[in-house]
Specification:
By secondary structure, this protein is an alpha+beta fold. The chain has helices spanning 2-12, 104-114, 134-145, 150-169, 175-180, 186-199, 207-214, 218-229, 233-248, 256-262, 268-279, 283-288; strands at residues 21-23, 30-34, 41-45, 48-54, 56-61, 64-68, 72-76, 80-88, 95-101, 127-131. The longest helix has 20 residues, at 150-169.
Length: 295
């Protein structure tokens, strides 16, 4: 991990002072550097994989709690609201991580080539952690090494990214990815319902309507949704509304009450109460000092 940490830290030296994130031109790879421990933060994790190379991070999704230390990788198959916290970081040994968004079309191509059948041998949770083996760590190291070679990176970065996708796909924890790619699996059905909610998460949508979209009965949909995401459909919908509200509050043209109504609340008082409970500050307080949206 030391060589990976040096590679990440070396690239991040080119980031603006104080920047916690750095976008690279390496197949969507993002790097994160945090120099201090912090409080819990609420974020959305999209389909992605990541590798912690220094420090430690805690991730909570529903009742699922992951502790990620150097050498631990994370796999997220669906869009999930998460509560995260950096628990080990300092100015001399910052928290360092590499995050790569999953290309679902690429995963589907790989699955077809490998002739993998959908399976649930490792469960169907949409978030998993695994110990990154030498081959996966080496792939991340090679991808990071391409940051200094712009000519080669345009050709080689997609190939290394493809290798990383493959290694997550064939891992035991990749079972949820393999089932997601099957059009009639429970994971893919829940994925369709999540996509619908994300397209209009601020609107009211009944469980019956979501179950119809997923092609499941209401009770079956509720059970499978909770198994995949770690939360109920209504709980997920509430997270979507509150996250959407946090984004809208950054625009001073929107009043707190207008934000509340636009994301589906009928009462601005209830909205303020649930917002404060979720983020630890009222909507007005976050408008003057918005919370971090780092993943």
């Amino acid at each position: 991990m030391e060589s990976l940490a040096k590679a990440v830290d070396g690239i991040l030296r080119g980031a603006p002072p104080g920047a916690a994130w750095m976008e690279t031109n390496l197949a969507g790879l993002r790097l994160r550097r945090v120099t201090h421990r912090g409080p819990f933060d609420c974020v959305f994790h999209g389909p992605l994989c990541g590798l912690v190379v220094q420090g430690a991070k805690e991730v909570v999704v529903g009742r699922r709690r992951l502790l990620l230390r150097p050498g631990d990788a994370m796999l997220v198959s669906h869009h999930l609201p998460a509560v995260t916290r950096i628990i080990e970081a300092s100015a001399t040994r910052p928290y360092l991580a590499a995050i790569l968004p999953f290309d679902l079309e690429l995963l589907a191509q790989l699955a077809t080539q490998l002739d993998y059948r959908a399976d649930g041998a490792h469960g169907e949770s949409a978030i998993e952690s695994l110990v990154a083996g030498p081959a996966l760590c080496d792939a991340f190291k090679r991808l990071l090494g391409l940051a200094q070679t712009p000519v080669e990176s345009g050709i080689l970065a997609p190939l290394v990214s493809k290798e990383i996708h493959l290694r997550f796909l064939i891992s035991p924890q990749g079972a949820v990815l393999r089932t997601l790619l099957s059009g009639d699996s429970r994971a893919s059905r829940i994925g369709r319902a999540i996509a619908f909610m994300r397209q209009g998460g601020e609107r009211d949508c009944s469980i019956a309507s979501l179950a119809d979209i997923a092609g499941l009965g209401a009770s079956s949909f509720h059970a499978h949704f909770k198994a995949v995401t770690g939360m109920t459909p209504l709980g997920y919908q509430k997270e979507l509304r509150l996250m959407r509200a946090r984004e809208l509050l950054l625009d001073p043209q929107h009043s707190v009450s207008s934000v509340a109504f636009s994301v589906g609340y009928e009462s601005s008082t209830q909205f303020s109460r649930e917002y404060s409970r979720r983020f630890g500050a009222s909507p007005r307080e976050h408008r003057t000092a918005p919370v971090s949206t780092a993943a």
